[in-house]
Specification:
Helix content is 35%, strand content 16%. The protein is an alpha/beta fold. It has two domains: 31 residues, no CATH class; 185 residues, Rossmann fold (3-Layer(aba) Sandwich).
Length: 242
């Protein structure tokens, strides 16, 4: 019985990379590729730790030690519209390419189910953080990298998350973005709903956000591209030797 050969004609499709979605051309050299040529060829700077993780040195190479990203909780926080969901999904895609198990906990998605009983008051935000942190701790204990995307407006919220996850590895990353830019993006339409009076105590409008006093793990999502931001996150994640 003859096996059918793949169609080797060049044909347009849609790139499968998160938030790319461009019309892609799949060449006959790789008829089943699901990425556009730009995403397929994209690589990190060879001097970065991220490059070394994706392209580790050959075993036995003198003076080299292979490292991998260990199970941990990465807590993305910042204004709504700062890019927490977008960045966490892009990082998750990269981790999956490295054959690493990961889980995304998005604050807005939690409010549609587990935390649908909570409003946006500071007390209920605190409860939402606690619930997310408890889930993150359980998943991390099972060897999963957990990416949490949550506004976490007050320092006490971030400290509580770290307390719950401890002693497991915990990295908090502040996504720095101006309120004006966040409102301009308004990907989820939350600012529009808040201005219309549908959401009370919304961070940035009638509830304040307290940025970290000093946090070396800060990524400016206004100035950096998504690709560069993913690279920064990978460089900030906790590694272990293998």
């Amino acid at each position: 019985m003859k096996h059918s050969q793949p169609n080797t004609n060049i044909h347009p499709k849609r790139c499968s990379t998160y938030f790319c979605g461009s019309d892609a051309v799949y060449t006959r050299g790789d008829p089943y590729t699901k990425k556009c040529q730009r995403c397929y060829d994209k690589r990190f700077d060879k001097s970065s730790q991220a490059w070394k993780l994706i392209n580790p040195p050959a075993p036995g190479t003198p003076g080299t030690l292979n490292t991998v990203i260990k199970p941990q909780v990465v807590w993305f926080y910042g204004l709504s519209g700062s890019g927490k969901t977008t960045l966490s999904r892009a990082v998750a895609e990269k981790l999956k390419e490295l054959n690493l198990s990961c889980l995304i906990l998005d604050g807005d998605e939690l409010r549609q189910g587990l935390s649908k009983d909570l409003d946006f008051s500071l007390l209920n935000r605190y409860k939402n953080v606690q619930r997310a942190a408890e889930i993150a701790r359980l998943a991390c204990n099972q060897g999963i990298i957990v990416l949490v995307a949550m506004i976490s407006p007050m320092n006490i919220h971030r400290l509580e998350a770290q307390r719950i996850v401890s002693p497991l590895p915990f990295t908090e990353i502040f996504l720095d973005c101006s309120l004006e830019k966040a409102i301009e993006r308004d990907v989820k339409g939350l600012y529009a709903r808040a201005k219309a009076g549908e959401i009370k105590d919304f961070t940035g409008l009638d509830s304040r956000f307290v940025p970290p006093i000093c946090n070396k793990n800060t990524i400016n999502t206004e100035s950096l591209t998504l690709h560069a931001s993913v690279k920064e996150v990978l460089n900030k994640m906790i590694l272990t030797k293998v």
